[in-house]
Specification:
With about 625 residues, the chain is of the alpha/beta class. The protein has helices at about 5-20, 25-30, 35-55, 60-80, 80-85, 90-100, 110-120, 130-140, 155-175, 185-200, 205-210, 210-215, 220-230, 235-245, 255-260, 275-280, 285-290, 295-300, 360-365, 385-395, 410-415, 420-430, 450-460, 485-495, 515-525, 595-600; strands spanning about 315, 320-325, 375, 405-410, 435-440, 465-475, 495-505, 540-545, 550, 560-565, 570-575, 585-590.
């Protein structure tokens, strides 16, 4: 069958299924001659449906009952003229025209959104069964459960425990799909990788353990590209992206240590997809960086730091916290870096400041006693010369109002040998119990990055009283079922506390990394919730440009206001100042769920395993 004809048949089938889910909605739309009439008819229908649900006309369990009412509220929001004005288009008009035969104006993602919304308003989501419950319904049982089994007492507890055993087995089975860098076989392979890298540089094991050697031998430029190709199997698009980045001066680099975490036997990204996606940029990202090389500070500053910087090196979005950007270079470059508009390149020694360079910002902190928490970031602060770092921390320690200093760094992940006993002791010396604390906030993206070297670095810090927290960025690679669970487990094994799970900054150049907001909400409810509380202390957040973090668990702080014809949802995020000061909300166009599921399928995932994602908003 020719491809265009196959696609046409699939589209017609999908649309037919849509109207089968709710013939009443279709009738209301088809009978309407104008858009205002369609709006009135649908609102009347939803009012009648809500009354029927609330008065018990439908035989729904309580979870399905609640889900249906939530979905009706969401549907009404999509019909709001005010929301249409904010979004800049009419979701209702696209739906109305679809019902009247204009099926070439919307994408499959749009149809799927309303297919699942129609199921939800009619109480047919299956929310009460859950992803694990659906599996139990199809699994072969060795024995039938007793009828009228008691709901209380020891026998009920035994039955409940048996069910939880099955659930725990499934959790660990799925988690094991995502290997840890602590696994013996992976440690062995990486030892071989290390020896190959050292041979390439004609270096020794002592060199490898020296952070100065690691910094001086970061793979970058043409030489780094050639060495990367010589050591690691690469896909053609990976080679093309790195070569293009080098040619046009797009920041790129990998430390020898981090390179050893790659799979040196295959380019298929079966195990090291998260690692490669950290440092090998997609072609789209590189092309966008080249296109905007003259105006990155305007087009790529997603968080509007230029509008929230009262002085060079300082960003302030909150009353008691401020960011101190002490340098603008890193040992290696995260491909989806928030500050890709100002990071110069990997390991540029000339961009590391002297003590005097930091004085204007330090004086600013002295003059603002309301700030009690200082986040040192950059770039990577732990690249600073020890004397400069001591000067910086000493100046902050002398400020009575500074009670907490956090160091945002990827050094534990990219160059853990930098955190030796000496550095750990110096950092621990700035902790003054009862008056001032110092902590590290790192960025481990996957269990695959958790290694014995990282564990040793963390141990050295913790023995000196330094706490370590993790911020994970929720990307396509890390959003697979139980991937983040595996990461949390590995973090806790080495003594790192999960802190934040970030929705990836919604920058156009980071398109290949973005996932729907709904997937992060789904992960928190259906996967993270299965871990003990201390394993899931991370908070899921969305960064609102120029304003700061919006907590995704707080549904009252966002609204789903539209669905674009291409299937992308439009959210209206409320600011953290809500209830405190008069600051307006911010609209955001999300990733299409349908497109996301298709991309997961391309990675070998089963989209059916994520079916409940449509219910999260």
């Amino acid at each position: 069958m020719a491809e265009p004809r196959r696609r046409r048949i699939e589209a017609e089938t999908r649309i037919e299924r849509l109207w089968q889910e709710d013939p009443m909605a279709e009738e209301a739309l088809v009978r309407s001659e104008t858009l205002p009439e369609a709006r009135r008819r649908l609102l009347d229908y939803l009012a009648e449906l809500e009354e029927a649900i609330r008065t018990g006309a439908f035989d729904l369990d309580r979870l399905e009952w609640s889900s249906a009412l939530d979905a009706i509220f969401t549907f009404r929001n999509l019909l709001s003229p005010e929301n249409e004005a904010i979004a800049g288009f009419s979701t209702l008009e696209a739906l109305w025209r679809l019902a009247r035969g204009h099926d070439d104006e919307v994408d499959a993602g749009f149809v799927d959104e309303f297919l699942h919304l129609f199921r939800a308003i009619n109480g047919r989501t299956g929310v009460g069964r859950g992803w694990f419950g659906r599996g139990l319904e199809t699994a072969e049982r060795t024995e039938e459960p007793e009828e009228d089994f008691p709901r209380t007492g020891r026998r009920a507890a035994m039955e409940r425990s048996r069910f939880l055993d099955e659930l725990a087995d499934e959790v660990w089975r799925r988690t094991a799909v995502h290997p840890s860098g602590l696994d013996g076989e992976i440690v062995r392979k990486r030892g071989e990788n290390r020896r190959r890298i050292l041979a390439s540089f004609d270096a020794t094991e002592d060199d490898w353990a020296d952070p100065a050697w690691q910094a001086e031998h970061v793979l970058k430029g043409e030489d780094g590209t050639a060495r990367l190709q010589d050591l690691v199997p690469l896909r053609s698009e990976e080679i093309a992206a790195v070569r293009l980045a080098v040619r046009y001066g797009v920041p790129w680099g990998i430390t020898p240590y981090y390179l050893s975490l790659f799979d040196f036997e295959s380019a298929e990204r079966v195990e090291d997809g998260q690692v490669r996606s950290q440092v090998i940029p997609p072609l789209h990202t590189v092309r966008r960086m080249i296109e905007h090389r003259q105006d990155r500070s305007r087009t790529m500053d997603f968080m509007r730091e230029r509008d929230t910087s009262p002085i060079d090196r300082v960003t302030r979005r909150y009353p008691t916290i401020a960011v101190f950007k002490v340098c603008d270079t890193c040992p290696q470059i995260c491909t989806y870096c928030q500050r890709n508009w100002e990071i110069s390149d990997a390991m540029v020694f000339e961009r590391l400041p002297k003590a005097d360079d930091l004085e204007p910002a330090l004086a600013w902190f002295e003059a603002h006693p309301g700030i009690t928490d200082v986040l040192l970031t950059g770039g990577d602060p732990l690249l600073l010369d020890d004397r400069v770092l001591e000067h910086l921390l000493g100046r902050l320690a002398a400020m009575e109002h500074v009670r907490d200093v956090r160091i945002g760094t990827r050094i534990p992940v990219t160059m853990p040998m930098r955190i030796g006993v000496g550095l750990a002791e110096r950092l621990g010396a700035y902790i003054d119990p009862g008056r001032r604390n110092l902590a590290l906030v790192t960025h481990v993206e996957s269990a695959y990055e958790v290694t014995p070297e990282l564990a040793a670095a963390v141990d050295r810090l913790r023995r000196r009283g330094v706490q370590i927290y993790n911020q994970q960025v929720f990307t396509l690679e890390t959003s697979r079922r139980f991937q983040a669970v595996a990461t949390r487990v590995a973090l806790r094994q080495v003594g790192i506390d999960p802190y934040y799970t970030f929705y990836t900054k919604g920058k156009e150049e980071h398109r290949d990394y973005l996932v729907p907001v709904a997937r992060l909400l789904q992960e928190r409810k259906e996967e993270a919730r299965l871990l003990p509380g201390i394993f899931r202390t991370d908070e899921a957040v969305f960064n609102v440009p120029g304003l700061g973090k919006s907590h995704l668990r707080a549904k009252q702080d966002r609204e789903l206001i539209a669905i674009r014809p291409d299937g992308r949802r439009v959210y209206l995020f409320h600011p953290w100042e809500k209830g405190i000061a008069p600051v307006g909300p911010w609209p955001y166009v999300d990733v299409s769920i349908r497109e996301y599921l298709d991309r997961l399928e391309g990675l070998g995932e089963d989209p059916a395993d994520y079916e409940s994602i449509w219910s999260y908003s």
